[in-house]
Amino acid sequence: MPKPYFSHVTAWVFDLDNTLYPPAARLFDQIETRMTQYVMDTLRVPRAEADQLRHQYWRDHGTTLAGLMRLHDIDPGPYLDHVHDISLDHLEADAELAARIRALPGRKIVYTNGCGPYAERVIERRGLSGAFDAVYGVEHAGFLPKPETGAFAAIFARDGTCPETAAMFEDDPRNLAAPHALGMRTVHVAPERLEAAHIHHHTDDLSGFLARLV
């Protein structure tokens, strides 16, 4: 049972996409399509090249946005507005998950590489409004993305979170390396288990996992 491993935790940090909603909702498919279109329009390259650059920048810089900013000096505002202008029709409210997040002892925050307004839309659609004490997007870290340690440090300093008494829930295993190094308890939320030294726990059912903590 995971509960003893979380007895010291007073701050609970949740990623957004594919963490606070199931991957089956496929929201990120829409986002990736819009990312590719933005790269096509901005860099004036064909779709295949834009798609390749989107993935390459994600791999090399943490996010496609970070690569575009560093290599092409793009303005992040229009990009974030464009890629997050998606339909949330496939998302369903989850009252059980909301209740379990609210029952966690201590502070609860969302930290995403998306933008804050998009995160708020998703949270509302999932019926999680009021479950979190704060919501942070990439803009709150000066557009420095996860998995960079400096991004986490900026958010935690802004929030007043002490990593040694915090837990991180995240679908992208890359984004758990820095939290682990900072002393956080790490939980990989994904359909498939990945064995890695920086991952303490795995679950394919966030709500069920939280039920064993409260």
Q: Give the biggest beta sheet.
A: 6 strands, parallel
Per CATH, the architecture of the largest domain is 3-Layer(aba) Sandwich
From the N-terminal CA to the C-terminal CA, the straight-line distance is: 12 Å
Radius of gyration: 17 Å
CATH topology of the largest domain: Rossmann fold
Give the structural class.
Answer: alpha/beta
> CATH superfamily assignment of the largest domain?
HAD superfamily/HAD-like
Averaged pLDDT? 96
Looking at the structure, what is the overall shape? globular
Secondary structure tally, helices: 9
> What strand order characterises the main sheet?
3-2-1-4-5-6
Low-confidence stretches: none
Counted up, domains total 2
Determine the strand fraction and express it as a percent band. Answer: 5-15%
Q: In the CATH hierarchy, what is the class of the largest domain?
A: Alpha Beta
Following the backbone from N to C, one meets helices and strands in this order, namely: EHHHHHEHEHEHEEH
- Helix percent reads 40-55%
Can you count the beta strands? 6
Protein name: Putative hydrolase of the HAD superfamily
Keywords: Hydrolase
Pfam family, one: Hydrolase
Organism: Roseovarius lutimaris
